[in-house]
Write a structure and sequence with these properties.
It is found in: Cell membrane. By secondary structure, the protein is mainly alpha-helical. Helix content is 83%, strand content 0%. It has one domain (2-203).
């Protein structure tokens, strides 16, 4: 059980820590709305990681085979959505540079933020490939209790890191209180999202 827990924690942090589009979205969400909404979005991403960890633990090899034909279209879809989010954020920041950051979150509620980031994270099929590869590499039969420990540990690791990102975003939102600071934050964050989306699209070619 201890080995499964350690494997789950390593896997969860391994998939969560690298800076990607989801990380930037979580930070921006907290900075431009509220910590509560940012944490909800963070948990949406962590839930998706947990779902993929569960699927990988139950039928990793079979799901890799099943997802292989649709992996590239799913990556393209995820990249396109990120581009649209980034472009929309840049346009909104340029049109309304003086709007208070706490009021400029597209009216996002915590539940909506949770569902949006959950759905967007689920569009990345490489996550299940990652978890499945880690499980299959151990060349052991995973009993249900062992698989459950792995999945819970992976979710806990991802959730804790996403929460740190949300907290960081909330701090940024409080520090950059001037209109110029908010504008620069919006342009930098959304610009980075667009760059990451283009990289994702190119890697799927």
């Amino acid at each position: 059980m201890t080995e499964a827990a350690i494997a789950g924690l390593v896997a969860g942090y391994g998939i969560a820590i690298p800076v990607g589009g989801m990380a930037v979205l979580i930070i921006m969400l907290s900075a431009r709305t509220s910590l509560r909404t940012g944490l909800a979005g963070a948990m949406g991403t962590a839930t998706a990681d947990g779902v993929y960890a569960l699927l990988a633990a139950l039928a990793g090899a079979a799901l890799i085979t099943l997802l292989r034909p649709v992996a590239r279209p799913m990556q393209w879809a995820g990249a396109l959505i990120l581009v649209l989010i980034g472009v929309k954020g840049v346009v909104a920041a340029l049109r309304r540079p003086g709007v208070d950051a706490r009021l400029d979150g597209n009216g996002k509620k915590p539940l909506r933020a949770y569902l949006e980031l959950f759905g967007l994270t689920m569009l990345n099929p490489l996550t299940i490939v990652y978890f499945a590869a880690l499980i299959l590499a151990q060349q052991q039969t995973w009993s249900p209790p062992r698989a459950a420990v792995f999945v819970l540990a992976a979710f806990a690791a991802s959730a804790s890191w996403q929460a740190v990102l949300a907290l960081g975003g909330a701090v940024v939102g409080r520090v950059l209180v001037s209109d110029r600071g908010r504008l620069l934050t919006a342009l930098a964050g959304n610009g980075f999202i667009i760059v990451l989306a283009v990289r994702l699209f190119v890697s799927a070619l």
